[in-house]
Prior knowledge:
This protein is α+β, with helices and mostly antiparallel strands.
Amino acid sequence: MIDRIVSMGAMLLLASLSLQAAGKYGDLDHAGSNVFDQASVQRGATLFVNYCMSCHSAEFVRYQHLVNDLDLSEEEVLGNLAFGDQELSDYLLAAMRDEDAEEWFGVVPPDLTLTARSRGPDWIYTFMRSFYLTDDGWNNTVLEHPSMPHVLWELQGIQRAVTEQREASGGEVRTEVVSLELDQPGAMSPTEYDRAIRDLVAFMEYISEPAQLTRKRLGIWVFLFLSLFTFISWLLYQEYWKDVKK
Ligand code: HEC
């Protein structure tokens, strides 16, 4: 029995250590997004449908989910978040056909339903803030030479890279990006843009695991039930032991 408990403990310790290791992202900025902030997730949804769904889908999410989970009315979802003759039972599918995307970008833009889990919130947050313009078009410090253009450049403005010549260990000189500078301001200030991306990330975290919102709502009831149950058990305990203790 004891050795079972010890090995369970060791496993839990190992699991938490590897979780910590997985949580390190090198140079990524901390997203600070909050999936339980409903207003933030709603703003993120608006950005997502307006700026991302021309190319990307979230093919496991139906418009109906947004009604149920984000406390929006059917009219709000159909009027503001769905385009054309979409119905609530439809999935959030990209406007672009895969064949066209492949022809234009060389790759089919990946489905974004699970990206917040596969890449992590910090990766997306940093990626969406790290596009910079070069003579050959857009580049990105997180995903080098992406097939995705900077679709939010009108909001963020245009960043350029500050580079430095650095000598690698083999003696070869390489040009490295040391920072990004805003060359031409966009419609948003840098603080506003960061907030918009935080909202977008919060929405992407929500679609990657919609049940987490329900879990939190249920959690409070579970907690109340357990408290009440503990209290009743305590009363029963008093009642049963009253005579024994005498
Ligand atoms: C014009 C089409 C287009 C639009 C619009 C677009 N993307 Fe992309 N996106 C792409 C393509 C193409 C790729 C693949 C990039 C690559 O692998 O080089 C991509 C890749 C990504 C990735 C990386 C996914 C991964 O796991 O590798 C993320 C995250 C992403 N897009 C987020 C967004 C967000 C958020 C928006 C909306 C603000 C958006 N994209 C709008 C075309 C687009």
